[in-house]
Amino acid sequence: MKRLLIVDDEDKIREVIKEYAEFSGYVAEEAADGMSAIGMVKLNDYDLIIMDVMMPKLDGFSAVKEIQKIKNIPVIMLSARGEEYDKLFGFELGIDDYVVKPFSPKELMARVNAVLSRVDASDKSSQTIERFDGLEVNFAARTISVDGKRIELTPKEYDLLFYMIQNKNIALSRDRLLSDIWGYDFFGDDRTIDTHVKNLRNSLGPYRKFIVTLRGVGYKFEYEG
Amino acid sequence: MKRLLIVDDEDKIREVIKEYAEFSGYVAEEAADGMSAIGMVKLNDYDLIIMDVMMPKLDGFSAVKEIQKIKNIPVIMLSARGEEYDKLFGFELGIDDYVVKPFSPKELMARVNAVLSRVDASDKSSQTIERFDGLEVNFAARTISVDGKRIELTPKEYDLLFYMIQNKNIALSRDRLLSDIWGYDFFGDDRTIDTHVKNLRNSLGPYRKFIVTLRGVGYKFEYEG
DNA sequence: TGAGAGCATCATAATTTTTTCAAAAACAAT
DNA sequence: ATTGTTTTTGAAAAAATTATGATGCTCTCA
Fold this sequence. Notes:
The structure is a homodimer. The first copy, chain A, is of the alpha/beta class.
């Protein structure tokens, strides 16, 4: 569950955003000015801050500046139409996106989702590595390693391996492999697959054994674990 | 190892300061006037600048003003006794301390230590610098340096590099790069990316190796550390 | 308004990958 | 064991992809 901090001096706007944010599955807290936003950031952990530019006491940019000294939190700035800001200036402050008022809550949430997923994606912990004995496959990084050693594959080898793993322990006919990996419009020889399987097996070294030949049918990635 | 830049038009004074600075464990470089100081700041990264007020070509205050536009570096000003300056004016420029000539090198170094430790302490949390071997990337300042040397990138190169780093170790398809960096409404050639990757690689010198080509897919910033 | 920077595009060179094909090997059934 | 069928393999041709260098366009700044 992600927590958002909404900073705007207009109660109504905060309300609208908060409501839609909660509807979208976020937990939302509010601050009415930059000063109290800073205080709240010190006390709590937020995943993202939505911050208005124009506010009494402490404007949005200054608040962001202070906040970034405390914690590194993604920020989306709200600015009124006609207010011109130097995007570069924003970048320096670590601002992730701008949304111009008036905006639709839906659009704002789309931006929130986008920023958060971007952050998540770069978070190492979300890297899904699958392990099959000494064979490690990292889909996101598009890498594999065999007994701890990085192995480079050709594009088709990756495609083939990834596809077979995603369908592990399932018999895969040549037809199916061809149409799913090569595309329905592939115009070539059945036996092309055999060659790629051969190459892939060679690349996998000892773990070639996971790729099983199904005579008369095709192949299968077999692993029970 | 901290690097100092000593800016003074009098050779003798520079010499004395440099000697004592190195004795105190700093790396010290020299500039004889404001102009060349600016040039050196552009090229290299310094942790602190010791700057004389009275200098030919470009006085100390003006030089600091320019330098602060480029990088945020702590400054200690040297001024002759009798020269009256508005301290507030100095504060606005981000000057951290004043030392009045004639000074003892020991006193000056004490001030240097004080300023640097103050900066270190306060800056820890806001440091958005990432290091990849000899490649330093400062997201906030939108600067990079290669083996300690400041490198200028074009806007697109920054965008590309920053995006790739934020998604390091993740395979990035050309589609994704295009839509996330150029924008979903970019209606251009895939191969445009290749050209920018080429430029970026050239800018990164030895660290071009971090940008890996993923044949049939796109690129990836690869760094394990 | 002229110089320079940055960018998109393109043609070509350099490189890698894919496909093809035929011989050898493996297999399954008689 | 023999035979017909299917798979594996190695090598070479063909195709695809990427790197690079050059070009012209646009925008900015002096």
